[in-house]
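Please fill in the sequence for the structure shown.

STRUCTURE ENCODING:
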């Protein structure tokens, strides 16, 4: 599989924005640039595994990918918070 430089930049940008949004929604602050990217990319993975099984489709394009990834990242952060015992939601 080959990913162009532009494709890699888009993945990092989507991950950064989605992770930042998830951090703002769940925790009230971001996780730093690297943490936001990692959370956003992991959230995109969670969303890509979970949403098709539920029959949820958000459309195409960059904005829908950011929303898709941010929702996945929020779900990921809530599950991590529950497993770690970090308190209530």
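FILLED IN BY: designer on duty
SEQUENCE:
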């Amino acid at each position: 599989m080959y990913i162009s430089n532009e494709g890699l930049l888009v993945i990092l940008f989507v991950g950064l924005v989605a992770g930042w949004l998830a951090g703002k929604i769940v925790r009230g602050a971001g996780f730093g640039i690297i943490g936001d990217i990692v959370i956003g990319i992991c959230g995109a993975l969670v969303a890509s595994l979970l949403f098709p099984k539920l029959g949820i489709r958000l459309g195409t394009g960059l904005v829908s990918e950011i929303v898709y990834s941010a929702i996945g990242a929020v779900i990921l952060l809530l599950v991590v918070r529950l497993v770690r015992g970090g308190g209530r939601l």
